[in-house]
Design a protein that fits this description.
Distance between the termini: 34 Å
Shape: globular
Largest sheet: 8 strands, mixed
Helix content: 25-40%
Strand content: 15-25%
CATH class of the largest domain: Alpha Beta
Number of strands: 20
CATH architecture of the largest domain: 2-Layer Sandwich
CATH topology of the largest domain: BirA Bifunctional Protein, domain 2
Structural class: alpha+beta
Length: 581
């Protein structure tokens, strides 16, 4: 790599790495390092009365205090941080003191990985630490970490820019305390839910991500192409139809944690790639599923946080079962004063106009009702609330309500003003299902690009017979947001989708040589900030000459310095070219 592309710190670190190699120290050894202790268990298991415990620890150097023949450093491992006391004569018992005097004091940097053997002790200030007797270099860090300082409870030079944190999550995890805990809790949420299902005897399955028909939800899919088969395929928007095929096949209960993909907007609660858990259980209905869901969420919250309450922003949310139940019509009437029962499409359009809700001609009754609820009702449900009995137009895969054929046996669980779960008494009448698909195709022809496509194979599966079944889907990312008190989905995704990183356009070498500039000076000019040839037109010749000579000396480029007249000629050529353009 051209040294002009590196910062001063990066150059120094690369030099340290080469010095280590010259000393016979591999900065990236391949051998196993036998770690047998971690920062948290070192503190938890320490006793002043016990014999000193011998440990072998490894981690990243986060701080150092060098004090002559003895020093302290803070080592960060996967469990936290522990202080290490390093004495020259302990790690270098013979005459050769290079490991301490050169390697530890001069060649190691913040961010490097090292292994330390030694015994646990308590310092005079009372801090439980490791007294090192051996040091091993495990990995050299060539790029400096952001140095986050904390003093008197205040944080300085914080690495807190959201875009940088999400793009460089690897740095975020190292320097920002608490970020790792979010993702450890995410794992515990999955484990708790999986255990809950397994204890009930339901089995975890896997279904296709690449699908010939994007079924199971109303959403815009991502489209790709299978070269060997020469057919279009869609990235999964939901796994519902495949899971119900398995119920047809005789499984009592199946569930899947599925990666779904929807080619839609991105904001603080939506990512185009997200995780959804869907479960289907035969011989159950949506009333049973409500009880099952609230008991599951209460258990997860208790196991993850030790309490049934979580704090999200200004809201304290209780997952203590049972949750409130409100019908869709009751919710809309409560928050708008309008009774939508029996309204046709035109009346709903008029209601939307009265309420100031924008509509378009492609929207049918279901979409219009969904818009009313989303705009006027959804955000009001902070505590967990089941919204039940949706109009049939909103639910093409749901069984008709047993007492009102205009409604369906469906619920959505609202928490903190957002949908968390969606569940049905599943439609298992193949004729009714086919007619619903046909209606969805009618909406598609009107311009609704989220309407469902007819899945003839799924209809065929239903014709073989599917028992009464209830299904439920839950957004895992939103659930983790709630369990960790986060308000942005990006905080609970290790690598959220980002817009392409902005890269400043640089001219090629030819653009500079066309002005009569020697090719060997192009990297130095770009290092000085002239990343396009045209940008040199306004440069001051004397200042640019000084910059180039300074870079040549500082980075030991070994180039023959240009004369001031030569630099002035380059600038004139750039200015003339700019004028001609």
């Amino acid at each position: 790599m051209n040294p002009l592309e590196l910062s001063e710190q990066e150059i120094i670190r690369r030099g340290s790495m080469e010095t280590m190699r010259q000393m016979g120290i591999d900065p990236y050894p391949a051998a196993e390092y036998p770690v047998d202790a971690y920062s948290d268990d070192i503190r938890a298991n320490f006793s002043d009365e016990a014999e000193p415990r011998q440990v072998c620890v490894a981690g990243r150097i986060m701080t150092r205090r060098i004090m002559g023949k003895a020093s302290f450093m803070e080592l960060q491992d996967s469990h936290g941080r522990v202080q290490v006391y390093v004495s020259r004569d302990e790690i270098c018992p013979g005459d050769d003191k290079e490991l301490y005097n050169t390697v530890f004091k001069k060649l190691l940097d913040i961010g490097d990985f090292v292994g330390m053997r030694g015994h646990v002790f308590r310092t005079q200030t009372g801090e439980i630490s490791v007294h090192a007797s051996d040091l091993t270099v495990l990995a050299k860090s060539l790029r400096p970490l952001p140095v986050v300082k904390v003093k008197d409870g205040k944080t300085y030079d914080a690495f807190d820019d959201p875009e940088l944190r999400y793009r460089r999550r690897y740095v975020d995890l190292v320097v920002n305390e608490g970020v790792r805990d979010i993702f450890l809790k995410r794992t515990r949420v999955y484990t708790s839910m999986r255990n809950y299902f397994n204890e009930h005897g339901y089995i975890e399955v896997e279904t296709p991500i690449l699908q010939s028909i994007p079924g199971g939800a109303s959403a815009r899919p991502f489209i790709t192409h299978h070269n060997a088969l020469d057919i279009p395929l869609y990235l999964r928007i939901a796994d519902e139809l495949y899971l119900k095929r398995l119920i047809v096949g005789g499984f009592e209960g199946v569930y899947e944690f599925s990666k779904n993909f929807r080619n839609e907007g991105m904001d603080r609660t939506h990512n185009p790639e997200f995780t959804c858990m869907e479960i289907y259980v035969s011989y159950k209905d949506y009333n049973w599923m409500m009880r099952f869901t609230e008991q599951m969420l209460e258990r997860i919250c208790l196991e993850v946080n030790g309490t049934t309450e979580v704090r999200v922003g200004d809201n304290t949310i209780s997952f203590k079962a049972p949750f409130r139940r409100v019908t869709m019509a009751e919710a809309i009437k409560e928050h708008t004063g309008a009774d939508i029962t029996g309204m046709d499409e035109q009346q709903l359009r008029e209601l939307c106009a009265t309420l100031g809700i924008e509509t378009d001609p492609s929207m049918g009754k279901g979409k219009l009702i969904d818009e009313i609820f989303g705009e006027k009702c959804e955000g009001n449900y902070i505590q967990p609330t089941f919204i039940t009995d949706y109009p049939i137009e909103m639910s093409p895969l749901t069984k008709r309500h047993r007492s009102n054929p205009e409604l369906t046996e469906r619920f959505e669980l609202m928490v903190n003003g957002k949908e968390l779960c969606n569940a049905y008494s599943e439609l298992n009448d193949p004729i009714d299902q086919y007619e619903r698909f046909v209606e969805q195709m009618r909406l598609s022809e009107k311009g609704d690009d989220e309407a469902m496509i007819i899945d003839h194979d799924f209809i065929r599966a239903l014709e073989y017979g599917m028992p009464p079944t209830s299904g439920m889907g839950i957004g895992m990312d939103r659930l983790v947001m709630l369990m960790t008190g986060q308000t942005a989905i990006q905080e609970v995704l290790l690598f959220p989708q980002m817009r392409p990183e902005k890269v400043h356009k640089r001219d090629s070498e030819e653009a500079y040589t066309a002005l009569g500039i020697d090719a060997e000076w192009v990297p130095a000019l770009q290092k000085a900030g002239y990343i396009t040839a045209a940008s040199m037109a306004d440069a001051a010749a004397g200042k640019l000459h000084q910059e180039l000579c300074g870079l040549n000396k500082k980075h030991k480029l070994g180039l023959k310095n240009p004369t001031p007249d030569t630099v002035a000629a380059w600038i004139d050529a750039a200015a003339n070219t700019d004028t001609q353009q």
